[in-house]
Design a protein that fits this description.
342 residues, Polysaccharide deacetylase, NODB_dom, 14 helices, two-stranded parallel sheet, Polysacch_Deacetylase, signal, seven-stranded mixed beta sheet, alpha/beta, TIM Barrel, globular, 2 domains
Amino acid sequence: MQRLFNLLRLVWAELLYRTGILFVLKAWVLRRRAVVLMYHRVLTPEERNRSFSAEGIVVGVETFTWQMQAAKELFRVVSLPEFLESLRQGTGFSDGTCLITFDDGWSDNYRNAFPVLQRLQIPATIFLPMDFIGSGKMFWREEMAAALWAAAQGRDAESLELLRELAVEQLARMSFPEAKRVIEAYITGLKERPVDYRQEVAERLSAFAARKRSRNHDVDSFIDWEQAKLMRDYGISFGSHSYYHPILTELESDAVAAEAICSRLVLERWFPGDPLVFCYPNGDYDETVSREVATAGYAAAFTTEPGFVAGGDDPLTIKRVNIHEDMTKSRALFLARILGVI
């Protein structure tokens, strides 16, 4: 059924593209408005086969390359300062304005995405979780996944006991692609569990990973500050993705304030004078969170809510369109996804 759905989606997008309907729609919905594209990871086929990141945040290098070429042809791609100035003025954007953003600052942003952006002279903005940059640390999701896969391969008593207690014994009988799907579903489900339980599981898996040396830093790692400085010299802007990358709506207001202020101080240290912008981890925010972000001195904050941006919109709730391989692997799908018709 999923394959049939994907085929129908592709046929629909191609029909709209080849008949010119998508271009008429683009002119209409992006008249004096902007679209902000949200990327995360840009991986080679070999890297995708070793990464524990969810497929919903990944595009391939080849796909990203033609998407950036298409973006230059289809839109007016602007820098962060240009985008913020149009937003601030409130009189509207130039038709078809586009801002390119990346969440998390993964190492592949420097290794794979940056050369493409540099060659095509496309500006972009990367939101950094400060505690992870240059630290060798992994996000809890990737670290837990690596630990679960290590347990699946371990075959020893400790590994099997861990799988049994977490109710994922089937991992021991699966290939990597099969296990990755099960692990992704398990970790996604943890997000719905109480914070204390999630933390307990995370700590146990982290300790297990350390003992088994199951870390995967070469793929699921982050840029360092020297790489960030080099990227900045070539037109890449940087913003805050908080300090520790927590779900901010689960924190008390003083903890939210600390996340916003501490990450702002790091930005000001490395990129003095640059615009101060924020991106809510996991897209989760509420009135308290946005208030603390504004109080900390940020000019704008970006969400994961889909949609377009008009001059005068609330700068603390900027909408974006998530781009990943499955939904955007043809030019027609790419444009249809951006315009919200698939």
